Amino acid sequence: MRLLNVDTVEEARQKMISAMECHEPETIEKELLDAKGATLAEDICAGENVPFFRRSTVDGYAVKAADTQGAGESIPVFLNIAGEVEMGKGCDQTVTSGTCVYVPTGGMIPEGADGVVMVEYCELFSDSQAAIYQSVPVGANIVEAGDDMKEGEIVLKRGTKLTPQSIGVLAALGITRVRVYHPWRISIISTGDELVAPKEKPGPGQVRDINTYGIYAMSRQLGFEVSGYAVLKDERSLLFKTAEKAMENSDIVVVSGGSSQGKKDETNSVIDELASEGAFTHGLALKPGKPTILGYDKPSKTLLVGLPGHPAAAMLVFKLLVGWLWRTRTGGKEPYPWTAEISTNLPAAPGKLTCQLVHLERMEDGRLLACPVFGRSGLISTLSRADGYVLIEENKEGLKKGEQVSVFEI
Protein backbone atom coordinates (compact mmCIF):
# COMPACT_ATOMS: atom_id res chain seq x y z
CA MET A 1 0.00 0.00 0.00
CA ARG A 2 1.23 3.52 -0.77
CA LEU A 3 0.22 6.48 1.29
CA LEU A 4 1.30 9.18 -1.15
CA ASN A 5 -1.81 11.16 -2.13
CA VAL A 6 -2.93 11.80 1.40
CA ASP A 7 -5.91 14.00 2.35
CA THR A 8 -5.93 16.85 4.79
CA VAL A 9 -8.24 16.36 7.75
CA GLU A 10 -10.68 18.83 6.21
CA GLU A 11 -10.63 17.01 2.84
CA ALA A 12 -11.31 13.69 4.58
CA ARG A 13 -14.18 15.23 6.51
CA GLN A 14 -15.80 16.63 3.39
CA LYS A 15 -15.43 13.27 1.64
CA MET A 16 -17.23 11.58 4.53
CA ILE A 17 -20.04 14.15 4.37
CA SER A 18 -20.37 13.69 0.62
CA ALA A 19 -20.30 9.88 0.80
CA MET A 20 -22.91 9.80 3.59
CA GLU A 21 -25.13 12.51 2.14
CA CYS A 22 -28.22 10.27 2.19
CA HIS A 23 -27.35 8.56 5.47
CA GLU A 24 -29.53 10.63 7.79
CA PRO A 25 -29.29 9.74 11.49
CA GLU A 26 -32.54 8.13 12.67
CA THR A 27 -34.63 9.74 15.40
CA ILE A 28 -36.59 8.21 18.25
CA GLU A 29 -38.70 9.44 21.16
CA LYS A 30 -37.41 8.96 24.68
CA GLU A 31 -38.91 9.37 28.11
CA LEU A 32 -37.34 12.37 29.80
CA LEU A 33 -35.90 10.35 32.68
CA ASP A 34 -34.09 8.10 30.18
CA ALA A 35 -32.85 10.89 27.90
CA LYS A 36 -29.64 11.99 29.66
CA GLY A 37 -26.73 11.99 27.21
CA ALA A 38 -28.97 11.78 24.13
CA THR A 39 -28.79 14.40 21.36
CA LEU A 40 -31.86 16.51 20.63
CA ALA A 41 -33.23 16.03 17.11
CA GLU A 42 -35.32 19.21 17.10
CA ASP A 43 -35.45 22.69 18.57
CA ILE A 44 -37.42 22.97 21.80
CA CYS A 45 -39.62 26.07 22.11
CA ALA A 46 -41.23 27.22 25.35
CA GLY A 47 -44.97 26.63 25.11
CA GLU A 48 -45.61 28.92 28.06
CA ASN A 49 -43.94 31.49 30.25
CA VAL A 50 -41.74 30.10 33.02
CA PRO A 51 -42.63 31.06 35.63
CA PHE A 52 -46.17 31.79 34.50
CA PHE A 53 -46.82 34.05 37.50
CA ARG A 54 -44.80 36.65 39.39
CA ARG A 55 -42.82 35.07 42.24
CA SER A 56 -40.85 36.26 45.22
CA THR A 57 -37.18 35.27 45.46
CA VAL A 58 -37.09 35.83 49.24
CA ASP A 59 -39.18 35.54 52.38
CA GLY A 60 -40.50 39.01 52.98
CA TYR A 61 -43.24 41.58 52.51
CA ALA A 62 -44.61 42.57 49.11
CA VAL A 63 -44.91 46.35 48.94
CA LYS A 64 -45.26 49.31 46.67
CA ALA A 65 -41.63 50.37 46.28
CA ALA A 66 -42.56 54.05 46.54
CA ASP A 67 -43.87 53.43 50.08
CA THR A 68 -40.39 52.38 51.25
CA GLN A 69 -38.50 55.43 50.07
CA GLY A 70 -36.55 57.02 52.92
CA ALA A 71 -36.76 53.93 55.12
CA GLY A 72 -33.58 53.04 57.01
CA GLU A 73 -32.26 51.42 60.16
CA SER A 74 -33.13 54.39 62.36
CA ILE A 75 -36.23 55.65 60.50
CA PRO A 76 -38.59 52.80 59.55
CA VAL A 77 -41.71 53.06 57.45
CA PHE A 78 -44.87 51.57 58.97
CA LEU A 79 -47.21 49.61 56.68
CA ASN A 80 -50.47 47.86 57.40
CA ILE A 81 -50.39 44.09 56.84
CA ALA A 82 -53.14 43.23 54.34
CA GLY A 83 -52.68 39.47 54.48
CA GLU A 84 -50.39 36.54 53.80
CA VAL A 85 -49.69 34.47 50.68
CA GLU A 86 -49.70 30.69 51.15
CA MET A 87 -47.13 28.63 49.28
CA GLY A 88 -48.54 26.71 46.36
CA LYS A 89 -51.76 28.68 46.27
CA GLY A 90 -53.07 31.65 44.32
CA CYS A 91 -53.21 35.12 45.80
CA ASP A 92 -56.40 37.17 46.07
CA GLN A 93 -54.88 40.00 48.13
CA THR A 94 -54.03 43.37 46.62
CA VAL A 95 -51.30 45.72 47.82
CA THR A 96 -52.37 49.34 47.93
CA SER A 97 -50.42 52.36 49.08
CA GLY A 98 -49.66 52.03 52.78
CA THR A 99 -50.15 48.26 52.91
CA CYS A 100 -48.00 45.13 52.55
CA VAL A 101 -48.53 41.37 52.24
CA TYR A 102 -46.26 38.63 53.59
CA VAL A 103 -44.89 36.36 50.80
CA PRO A 104 -42.70 33.22 51.23
CA THR A 105 -39.82 32.43 48.88
CA GLY A 106 -41.36 31.28 45.59
CA GLY A 107 -44.79 32.57 46.55
CA MET A 108 -47.08 34.48 44.21
CA ILE A 109 -46.74 38.28 44.22
CA PRO A 110 -50.07 39.99 44.97
CA GLU A 111 -51.58 42.50 42.59
CA GLY A 112 -50.35 46.05 43.09
CA ALA A 113 -46.95 45.08 44.57
CA ASP A 114 -43.79 46.00 42.68
CA GLY A 115 -41.12 45.06 45.21
CA VAL A 116 -40.39 42.72 48.13
CA VAL A 117 -38.53 43.68 51.30
CA MET A 118 -36.59 40.80 52.86
CA VAL A 119 -37.98 39.68 56.23
CA GLU A 120 -34.60 40.47 57.80
CA TYR A 121 -35.34 44.16 57.24
CA CYS A 122 -38.88 43.99 58.64
CA GLU A 123 -40.27 43.87 62.17
CA LEU A 124 -43.79 43.21 63.33
CA PHE A 125 -44.90 46.34 65.15
CA SER A 126 -48.24 44.71 65.91
CA ASP A 127 -50.38 41.91 64.53
CA SER A 128 -51.57 44.24 61.79
CA GLN A 129 -48.57 46.51 61.18
CA ALA A 130 -44.96 46.00 60.05
CA ALA A 131 -41.97 48.29 60.42
CA ILE A 132 -39.88 48.38 57.21
CA TYR A 133 -36.20 49.26 57.69
CA GLN A 134 -35.04 49.16 54.06
CA SER A 135 -35.84 51.13 50.93
CA VAL A 136 -36.25 48.92 47.82
CA PRO A 137 -36.41 49.81 44.11
CA VAL A 138 -39.14 48.70 41.73
CA GLY A 139 -38.68 45.00 40.86
CA ALA A 140 -36.61 44.17 43.96
CA ASN A 141 -36.65 40.45 44.81
CA ILE A 142 -39.31 39.66 42.18
CA VAL A 143 -39.10 37.20 39.30
CA GLU A 144 -41.50 38.36 36.60
CA ALA A 145 -43.60 35.96 34.52
CA GLY A 146 -41.39 34.70 31.68
CA ASP A 147 -38.11 35.84 33.28
CA ASP A 148 -36.81 32.25 33.12
CA MET A 149 -38.26 31.28 29.73
CA LYS A 150 -40.62 33.25 27.50
CA GLU A 151 -43.43 31.63 25.51
CA GLY A 152 -42.24 30.97 21.93
CA GLU A 153 -38.54 31.27 22.80
CA ILE A 154 -36.16 28.55 21.58
CA VAL A 155 -34.71 27.27 24.84
CA LEU A 156 -32.79 24.21 23.60
CA LYS A 157 -31.46 23.83 20.07
CA ARG A 158 -31.22 20.75 17.88
CA GLY A 159 -27.89 19.07 18.52
CA THR A 160 -27.91 19.80 22.25
CA LYS A 161 -26.56 16.90 24.27
CA LEU A 162 -29.03 16.48 27.10
CA THR A 163 -27.50 17.15 30.50
CA PRO A 164 -29.18 17.14 33.92
CA GLN A 165 -29.59 20.91 33.52
CA SER A 166 -31.31 20.69 30.14
CA ILE A 167 -33.54 17.88 31.37
CA GLY A 168 -34.54 20.25 34.17
CA VAL A 169 -35.46 22.84 31.53
CA LEU A 170 -37.70 20.32 29.75
CA ALA A 171 -39.37 19.33 33.01
CA ALA A 172 -40.07 23.00 33.76
CA LEU A 173 -41.90 23.20 30.43
CA GLY A 174 -43.98 20.09 31.14
CA ILE A 175 -42.20 18.09 28.42
CA THR A 176 -41.88 14.43 29.40
CA ARG A 177 -40.94 12.90 26.02
CA VAL A 178 -38.34 14.24 23.61
CA ARG A 179 -37.26 13.40 20.07
CA VAL A 180 -33.58 12.56 19.97
CA TYR A 181 -31.13 11.04 17.52
CA HIS A 182 -30.75 7.30 17.68
CA PRO A 183 -27.05 6.63 18.35
CA TRP A 184 -25.03 5.33 15.44
CA ARG A 185 -24.07 1.71 15.95
CA ILE A 186 -20.34 1.02 15.87
CA SER A 187 -18.44 -2.23 15.53
CA ILE A 188 -14.82 -2.19 16.69
CA ILE A 189 -12.20 -4.51 15.26
CA SER A 190 -8.60 -4.55 16.49
CA THR A 191 -6.00 -6.46 14.52
CA GLY A 192 -2.53 -7.73 15.33
CA ASP A 193 -0.72 -11.02 15.93
CA GLU A 194 0.86 -9.39 18.97
CA LEU A 195 -2.40 -8.57 20.80
CA VAL A 196 -3.55 -10.39 23.93
CA ALA A 197 -6.49 -9.64 26.22
CA PRO A 198 -5.84 -7.22 29.12
CA LYS A 199 -6.38 -10.03 31.66
CA GLU A 200 -3.58 -12.09 30.07
CA LYS A 201 0.13 -11.73 30.77
CA PRO A 202 1.91 -10.82 27.51
CA GLY A 203 4.59 -13.16 26.28
CA PRO A 204 7.71 -12.18 24.32
CA GLY A 205 6.71 -9.82 21.49
CA GLN A 206 3.12 -9.48 22.75
CA VAL A 207 1.20 -6.49 24.11
CA ARG A 208 -2.17 -6.11 25.77
CA ASP A 209 -5.03 -4.89 23.56
CA ILE A 210 -5.58 -1.19 24.23
CA ASN A 211 -7.44 0.07 21.18
CA THR A 212 -10.58 -2.01 21.63
CA TYR A 213 -11.09 -0.61 25.12
CA GLY A 214 -10.02 2.94 24.30
CA ILE A 215 -12.22 3.22 21.18
CA TYR A 216 -15.10 1.50 22.98
CA ALA A 217 -14.96 4.02 25.84
CA MET A 218 -14.60 6.98 23.46
CA SER A 219 -17.56 5.72 21.40
CA ARG A 220 -19.74 5.66 24.50
CA GLN A 221 -18.48 9.08 25.53
CA LEU A 222 -19.47 10.51 22.15
CA GLY A 223 -22.94 8.97 22.40
CA PHE A 224 -22.58 5.98 20.07
CA GLU A 225 -23.91 2.48 20.61
CA VAL A 226 -21.28 -0.25 20.39
CA SER A 227 -22.90 -3.18 18.61
CA GLY A 228 -19.88 -5.48 18.80
CA TYR A 229 -16.12 -5.81 18.97
CA ALA A 230 -13.48 -8.33 18.01
CA VAL A 231 -9.73 -8.83 18.29
CA LEU A 232 -8.24 -10.61 15.27
CA LYS A 233 -4.97 -12.07 14.09
CA ASP A 234 -3.40 -10.50 11.00
CA GLU A 235 -5.26 -12.64 8.47
CA ARG A 236 -6.92 -10.89 5.55
CA SER A 237 -9.72 -13.41 5.09
CA LEU A 238 -10.58 -13.28 8.78
CA LEU A 239 -10.64 -9.47 8.77
CA PHE A 240 -12.75 -9.41 5.59
CA LYS A 241 -15.36 -11.84 6.93
CA THR A 242 -15.55 -10.15 10.34
CA ALA A 243 -15.91 -6.64 8.86
CA GLU A 244 -18.44 -7.84 6.27
CA LYS A 245 -20.54 -9.44 9.02
CA ALA A 246 -20.29 -6.31 11.19
CA MET A 247 -21.62 -4.18 8.32
CA GLU A 248 -24.98 -5.96 8.58
CA ASN A 249 -25.89 -4.21 11.84
CA SER A 250 -23.52 -1.23 12.06
CA ASP A 251 -23.46 2.34 10.82
CA ILE A 252 -19.69 2.44 11.30
CA VAL A 253 -17.08 -0.31 11.32
CA VAL A 254 -13.78 0.75 12.83
CA VAL A 255 -10.62 -1.27 12.25
CA SER A 256 -7.53 -0.32 14.24
CA GLY A 257 -4.16 -1.55 13.06
CA GLY A 258 -3.19 -3.00 9.73
CA SER A 259 -3.35 0.31 7.89
CA SER A 260 0.33 1.14 7.41
CA GLN A 261 2.74 -0.36 4.90
CA GLY A 262 3.78 -3.54 6.70
CA LYS A 263 3.65 -6.93 5.02
CA LYS A 264 0.52 -7.97 6.91
CA ASP A 265 -1.28 -4.61 6.78
CA GLU A 266 -4.44 -5.49 4.87
CA THR A 267 -6.94 -2.92 6.13
CA ASN A 268 -6.69 -0.78 3.00
CA SER A 269 -7.38 -3.63 0.59
CA VAL A 270 -10.25 -4.94 2.75
CA ILE A 271 -11.94 -1.51 2.96
CA ASP A 272 -11.26 -0.97 -0.73
CA GLU A 273 -13.12 -4.21 -1.51
CA LEU A 274 -15.97 -3.82 0.98
CA ALA A 275 -16.79 -0.19 0.15
CA SER A 276 -19.11 0.06 -2.85
CA GLU A 277 -16.87 2.66 -4.51
CA GLY A 278 -13.63 1.68 -2.85
CA ALA A 279 -11.66 3.54 -0.23
CA PHE A 280 -11.80 7.32 -0.75
CA THR A 281 -9.06 8.31 1.71
CA HIS A 282 -5.71 6.55 1.73
CA GLY A 283 -3.93 8.48 4.44
CA LEU A 284 -4.09 11.78 6.32
CA ALA A 285 -1.73 14.75 6.30
CA LEU A 286 -1.82 14.54 10.09
CA LYS A 287 0.76 13.83 12.76
CA PRO A 288 0.07 11.46 14.39
CA GLY A 289 -2.48 9.65 12.25
CA LYS A 290 -1.13 9.34 8.71
CA PRO A 291 -2.14 5.67 8.18
CA THR A 292 -5.89 6.31 8.15
CA ILE A 293 -8.24 4.69 5.62
CA LEU A 294 -11.85 5.68 4.86
CA GLY A 295 -14.54 4.19 2.67
CA TYR A 296 -18.33 4.00 2.46
CA ASP A 297 -20.60 1.19 1.37
CA LYS A 298 -23.90 2.52 0.01
CA PRO A 299 -25.89 -0.76 -0.04
CA SER A 300 -25.32 -1.40 3.66
CA LYS A 301 -25.01 2.30 4.57
CA THR A 302 -21.79 1.68 6.47
CA LEU A 303 -18.82 3.96 6.98
CA LEU A 304 -15.57 1.98 7.09
CA VAL A 305 -12.75 3.51 9.10
CA GLY A 306 -9.19 2.20 9.26
CA LEU A 307 -7.35 3.74 12.21
CA PRO A 308 -3.65 3.68 13.04
CA GLY A 309 -2.61 0.87 15.35
CA HIS A 310 -0.88 3.17 17.81
CA PRO A 311 -3.36 3.90 20.63
CA ALA A 312 -2.84 7.67 20.99
CA ALA A 313 -3.05 8.19 17.22
CA ALA A 314 -6.08 5.89 16.91
CA MET A 315 -8.11 7.74 19.54
CA LEU A 316 -7.17 11.20 18.28
CA VAL A 317 -8.12 10.34 14.70
CA PHE A 318 -11.36 8.72 15.88
CA LYS A 319 -12.36 11.92 17.65
CA LEU A 320 -11.21 14.25 14.85
CA LEU A 321 -13.12 12.31 12.18
CA VAL A 322 -15.89 10.12 13.58
CA GLY A 323 -16.70 12.39 16.52
CA TRP A 324 -16.72 15.42 14.22
CA LEU A 325 -18.98 13.62 11.71
CA TRP A 326 -21.63 12.78 14.32
CA ARG A 327 -21.58 16.31 15.71
CA THR A 328 -21.93 17.79 12.23
CA ARG A 329 -24.77 15.51 11.14
CA THR A 330 -26.77 16.12 14.31
CA GLY A 331 -26.25 19.88 14.61
CA GLY A 332 -24.01 19.69 17.67
CA LYS A 333 -21.86 22.58 18.81
CA GLU A 334 -18.17 22.80 18.07
CA PRO A 335 -16.24 22.02 21.25
CA TYR A 336 -15.36 25.17 23.14
CA PRO A 337 -11.57 25.26 23.68
CA TRP A 338 -9.52 26.65 26.51
CA THR A 339 -7.30 29.59 25.61
CA ALA A 340 -3.75 29.20 26.88
CA GLU A 341 -0.14 30.14 26.18
CA ILE A 342 2.26 27.52 24.89
CA SER A 343 5.01 26.94 27.44
CA THR A 344 7.88 26.36 25.02
CA ASN A 345 8.91 26.64 21.38
CA LEU A 346 7.25 23.80 19.51
CA PRO A 347 8.13 22.67 15.96
CA ALA A 348 5.49 21.27 13.61
CA ALA A 349 5.60 18.51 11.01
CA PRO A 350 6.15 20.07 7.55
CA GLY A 351 3.07 19.84 5.33
CA LYS A 352 0.94 18.17 7.99
CA LEU A 353 -1.61 19.23 10.54
CA THR A 354 0.17 18.58 13.82
CA CYS A 355 -1.86 17.42 16.81
CA GLN A 356 0.14 18.05 19.97
CA LEU A 357 -1.03 16.75 23.33
CA VAL A 358 -0.69 19.18 26.24
CA HIS A 359 -1.46 19.41 29.92
CA LEU A 360 -2.64 22.66 31.47
CA GLU A 361 -1.14 24.57 34.37
CA ARG A 362 -2.64 27.64 36.05
CA MET A 363 -0.04 30.31 36.80
CA GLU A 364 -0.12 32.58 39.86
CA ASP A 365 -1.15 35.54 37.70
CA GLY A 366 -4.13 33.57 36.37
CA ARG A 367 -2.67 32.72 32.96
CA LEU A 368 -3.25 29.21 31.62
CA LEU A 369 -0.12 27.48 30.36
CA ALA A 370 -0.24 24.67 27.78
CA CYS A 371 2.70 22.34 28.38
CA PRO A 372 3.43 19.79 25.62
CA VAL A 373 3.18 16.12 26.56
CA PHE A 374 5.87 14.39 24.53
CA GLY A 375 5.79 10.73 23.67
CA ARG A 376 5.39 8.46 20.69
CA SER A 377 1.89 7.76 19.38
CA GLY A 378 2.23 4.14 20.51
CA LEU A 379 2.36 5.17 24.17
CA ILE A 380 -1.07 5.31 25.80
CA SER A 381 0.36 7.11 28.84
CA THR A 382 0.78 10.26 26.74
CA LEU A 383 -3.02 10.46 26.45
CA SER A 384 -3.60 9.82 30.14
CA ARG A 385 -1.19 12.63 31.09
CA ALA A 386 -2.80 15.15 28.72
CA ASP A 387 -5.72 17.50 29.35
CA GLY A 388 -6.23 18.20 25.66
CA TYR A 389 -4.52 18.94 22.38
CA VAL A 390 -3.54 21.89 20.19
CA LEU A 391 -3.61 21.86 16.40
CA ILE A 392 -0.78 23.43 14.41
CA GLU A 393 -1.83 24.18 10.84
CA GLU A 394 -0.02 22.68 7.86
CA ASN A 395 1.48 25.99 6.76
CA LYS A 396 3.00 26.84 10.15
CA GLU A 397 6.56 25.94 11.08
CA GLY A 398 5.56 25.66 14.71
CA LEU A 399 4.62 27.66 17.78
CA LYS A 400 6.69 30.19 19.68
CA LYS A 401 6.90 30.22 23.46
CA GLY A 402 4.14 32.43 24.85
CA GLU A 403 2.00 32.19 21.71
CA GLN A 404 -1.73 31.96 22.40
CA VAL A 405 -3.28 28.61 21.47
CA SER A 406 -6.66 26.88 21.61
CA VAL A 407 -6.66 23.68 23.64
CA PHE A 408 -9.37 21.14 22.77
CA GLU A 409 -10.53 18.47 25.18
CA ILE A 410 -9.59 14.91 24.26
Counting H and I runs of at least 4 residues, what is the number of helices? 7
The CATH class designation of the largest domain is Alpha Beta
Proportion in β-strands: 25-35%
Distance between the ends: 30 Å
| Strands ordered across the widest β-sheet | 7-4-6-5-9-8
Q: Low-confidence parts lasting 5 or more residues at pLDDT below 50?
A: none
- Integer average pLDDT: 93
Would you tell me which CATH topology of the largest domain applies? Answer: Molybdenum Cofactor Biosythetic Enzyme, Chain A
The count of domains is 4
CATH architecture of the largest domain: 3-Layer(aba) Sandwich
Name of the CATH superfamily of the largest domain: MoaB/Mog-like domain
Approximate shape: elongated
Major β-sheet profile = 6 strands, mixed
How many β-strand stretches?
A: 28
User: Helix amount, in percent?
Assistant: 10-25%
Q: Report the radius of gyration as a whole number of Å.
A: 30 Å
Textual characterization of the structure:
The chain is of the alpha/beta class. The protein folds into 4 domains: 9-26 and 183-329, MoaB/Mog-like domain (Molybdenum Cofactor Biosythetic Enzyme, Chain A, 3-Layer(aba) Sandwich); 41-50 and 147-181, Alpha-Beta Complex (Molybdopterin biosynthesis moea protein, domain 2); 55-143, Molybdopterin biosynthesis moeA protein, domain 3 (Beta Complex), CATH 2.170.190.11; 338-409, Beta Barrel (Beta-clip). The protein has 7 helices and 28 strands. The chain has helices spanning 9-19, 164-172, 211-222, 236-246, 267-274, 311-329, 381-384; strands spanning 27-31, 44-45, 55-56, 60-63, 77-84, 99-103, 115-118, 122-126, 129-132, 142-143, 154-156, 177-181, 185-191, 195-196, 207-208, 225-232, 252-256, 279-282, 286-287, 293-297, 302-307, 338-342, 346-347, 353-362, 368-372, 388-392, 398-399, 404-409. A 6-stranded mixed β-sheet has the order 7-4-6-5-9-8, with no helix packed on it. A hairpin with a 2-residue loop joins strand 8 and strand 9 (129-132). Helix 1 (9-19) packs across helix 6 (311-329), helix 3 (211-222) packs parallel to helix 6 and helix 4 (236-246) packs across helix 5. The radius of gyration is 30 Å and the shape is elongated. The mean pLDDT is 93. Pathway: Cofactor biosynthesis; molybdopterin biosynthesis. It catalyses: adenylyl-molybdopterin + molybdate = Mo-molybdopterin + AMP + H(+). Its cofactor is Mg(2+). May be involved in the biosynthesis of molybdopterin.
